[in-house]
Amino acid sequence: MECVVMAGDHNGAAPMNDEIAHGVAHGEPSILVFDVNETLIDFESMNPLFQRVFGDARVMREWLGHLFMYSMTITAAGLYEQFFTLGQGLLRMLGDIHGVKVTDSDTEQIRRGMLTMPAHPDVEVGLTRLADAGFRLVTLTNSPLDPGGRSPLEHAGLAHFFERQFSVDAVRAYKPAPRAYHLVTQSLRVPPASCFMVAAHLWDTMGAQSCGYTAGLITRPGNALLPVESLPRPNLVASDLPGLADQLIRFRR
Amino acid sequence: MECVVMAGDHNGAAPMNDEIAHGVAHGEPSILVFDVNETLIDFESMNPLFQRVFGDARVMREWLGHLFMYSMTITAAGLYEQFFTLGQGLLRMLGDIHGVKVTDSDTEQIRRGMLTMPAHPDVEVGLTRLADAGFRLVTLTNSPLDPGGRSPLEHAGLAHFFERQFSVDAVRAYKPAPRAYHLVTQSLRVPPASCFMVAAHLWDTMGAQSCGYTAGLITRPGNALLPVESLPRPNLVASDLPGLADQLIRFRR
């Protein structure tokens, strides 16, 4: 699936196809800001852990939903705790909810899992295409960087594509808090309109757009558009990164 | 299950049982602020709708998780849309994710469902006990008030227990954003320490505590504590409202 939506379409019932993508048609954006978790690397690789502990691999999605929700919760409340520690606590919380024993070995395994997820198979092709087209590539992730070893991106063999890696850990506020996105633009000393967020999560594209970025959604399994007219829709939508890359390259010309 | 946790225990690995509940032992709190959805009224009443549309009642929990997460998302992004409209859009989003057709009749039914959920069976007994003990009772809900008819609380036959009903709609910011909790204390002209949040969701107790409230968690099915030492735990925990009422009455003396 590929479709294009008008940028800044916060109010209208714009058609989801065959529109020129405003904001990506005038030489901008020049900088692509990539989310990492699920966008570039594959959370489904942790399914066997959830199958083993809970007897049901679908609990992975439940855990991931809680992980995003509680990262937003603590940010709204003005608190902070690192992503992996939060993920480990939530695994224990889900154990209580499902009446399943979660051991120290399980929580250690999920921490290791979050650090060592493989790249989605379409990612290398897409990143190569975008780098060749002259885009500057950076990342902005909810995960802390380099916690005593290689980052998730290094583990996945993708780090060499990016000129900078940013983590929300530097501002102690999770996406979609504005100061996460502003961290990137302020650090690079560029205006938000130069930046295009690439994410598999709509909450990430909405946050970026609210800070003046344009944004594209990769509709990986479990992700879709939210048809509420008053809320921003992604400027571009594709089912994989090469598809999004082709749109970006086409509309930028 | 009943257990009591020290108030303000943000850092220690405090035992979860047999502790005196600080902050509820000195004549305070005098005002109990009740969450409504799931805390007082029963979302499981919408299971048949999800069974019919998705062939799986468990999709209700997935929808509810998305509803909370996207209410936090739009608040973080500085945006706002009413709770029921968001819920209707998310039903369509889940239809796309699951490859299921969601009709206008389905979205109208979920709006009606959100307005007309029944009270949990333990609630009337618990509220009566707390009112008799002299607590002032108010509500603070993510739902808009009285959208052209009776509020969810009136439908559930519970409205007469409360001296005031507050909605986040008045501040266009969803819980756990601080200005939702501050709406109550500022409107009542009381300090946060006079207020005790009663909720079935940990993200709600965490938000309230971060604003200076004390708070109690009702661990209805699907809800549990989050064992992360740096994050606030509820001051009181019980599996139903009468259990929480008994603790509040005991510790306030």
TrEMBL record, chains A, B:
Q: Name one Pfam family in it.
A: Hydrolase
Keywords tagged on the record: Hydrolase
Keyword Hydrolase assigned: yes
* SUPFAM superfamilies found in the cross-reference section: HAD-like
Single GO molecular-function term? hydrolase activity, acting on acid halide bonds, in C-halide compounds
InterPro entries documented for this protein: 2-HAD (IPR006328), HAD-like_sf (IPR036412), HAD-SF_hydro_IA (IPR006439), HAD_sf (IPR023214), PGP-like_dom2 (IPR023198), S-2-haloacid_dehalogenase (IPR051540)
Carries keyword Ion transport?
Answer: no
Q: Which protein family is named in the record?
A: Belongs to the HAD-like hydrolase superfamily. S-2-haloalkanoic acid dehalogenase family.
Name of this protein: 2-haloacid dehalogenase
